[in-house]
């Protein structure tokens, strides 16, 4: 005996749409079709109204299924972070942990197996429908509006580093790229007001996230070389035998890193500049 239990809501599939078309053609009433498919009569009624062909106003199952799929994709595109679990996770990591959208997107499948989201979807929500929540305040640069890129650069028109004998970051060790080994550091300058000459030299371990800060008098290459050398030697002073704390240093292609070769000679470490 057929079960009388009715599913009150759920997306119809192509097979069900074909059966609706067939039963409707045989003259079955909506309630009869709903009982046969074990569906709510409202689901059948909405299906016949929403997915009719615009040309002849007739119901065609294949065309109806295509329309339903397009509508579903459009709805999901317009409503990013619709999943409540994902929304709470993204909001928590932005507000409390100050993670970037890229970090959130990479960590979500680990913390919540089966769930996923792209960093682009998070950005679209932050600067779109989620603007009212002011989540942009928790991004690194705190931009109220998203900066639009003029276009994607190719390898051919990628700008070359102006630093003499710069070593490409593509040559950096895999253990440094995937953060699987302690001792691979990144360095940069943290600026305050543009009118101020002083700033901070930052040295961060990619795996351990240990951060070392040191004030620099100005943004010249000589001052950066002096301060960075001091920072690294501080770390090297506590190294254990066969367990180096400093294995490599990565900087950007800013003018303050012009003396990367001298730094490398002083520290006997490979300083990689982005080229």
CATH architecture of the largest domain: 2-Layer Sandwich
Helix content: 25-40%
Q: Count all strands and give the number.
A: 5
What is the overall shape? elongated
Q: Report, as a whole number of angstroms, the end-to-end distance.
A: 72 Å
The low-confidence parts are 1-6
Tell me the CATH superfamily of the largest domain: Ribonuclease H-like superfamily/Ribonuclease H
Largest sheet composition = 5 strands, mixed
Main sheet: strand order: 3-2-1-4-5
Mean pLDDT: 82
What would the CATH topology of the largest domain be? Nucleotidyltransferase, domain 5
The helix/strand order is HHHHHHHHEEEHEHE
Structural class: alpha/beta
The radius of gyration is 29 Å
| The CATH top-level class label of the largest domain | Alpha Beta
As for the number of domains, it is: 3
- Counting H and I runs of at least 4 residues, what is the number of helices? 10
Instruction: Give the amount of beta strand, in percent.
Output: 5-15%
């Amino acid at each position: 005996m057929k079960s009388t239990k009715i599913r009150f809501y759920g997306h119809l599939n192509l097979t069900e749409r074909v059966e609706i078309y067939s039963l409707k053609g045989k003259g079955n009433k909506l309630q009869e079709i709903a009982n046969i498919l074990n569906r709510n009569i409202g689901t059948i009624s909405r299906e016949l109204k929403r997915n009719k062909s615009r040309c002849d106003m007739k119901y065609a199952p294949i065309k109806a299924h295509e329309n339903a799929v397009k509508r579903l994709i459009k709805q999901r595109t317009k409503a990013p972070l619709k999943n409540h679990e994902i929304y709470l996770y993204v909001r928590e990591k932005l507000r409390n942990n100050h993670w970037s959208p890229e970090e959130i997107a990479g960590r979500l499948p680990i913390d919540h197996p089966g769930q996923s989201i792209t960093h682009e979807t998070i950005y679209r929500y932050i600067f779109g429908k989620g603007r009212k929540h002011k989540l942009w305040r928790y991004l690194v640069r705190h931009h109220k509006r998203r900066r639009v890129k003029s276009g994607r650069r190719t390898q051919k028109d990628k700008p070359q580093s102006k630093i003499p004998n710069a070593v490409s970051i593509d040559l950096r060790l895999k253990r440094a790229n995937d953060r699987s080994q302690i001792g691979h550091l990144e360095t940069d300058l943290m600026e305050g007001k543009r009118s101020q000459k002083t700033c901070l030299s930052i040295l961060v371990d990619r795996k351990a996230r240990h951060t070392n800060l040191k004030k620099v008098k100005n943004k010249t290459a000589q001052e950066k070389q002096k301060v960075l050398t001091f920072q690294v030697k501080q770390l090297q002073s506590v190294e254990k035998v066969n367990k180096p704390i400093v294995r490599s240093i990565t900087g950007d292609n800013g003018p303050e890193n012009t003396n990367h070769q001298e730094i490398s000679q002083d520290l006997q470490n490979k300083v990689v500049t982005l080229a």
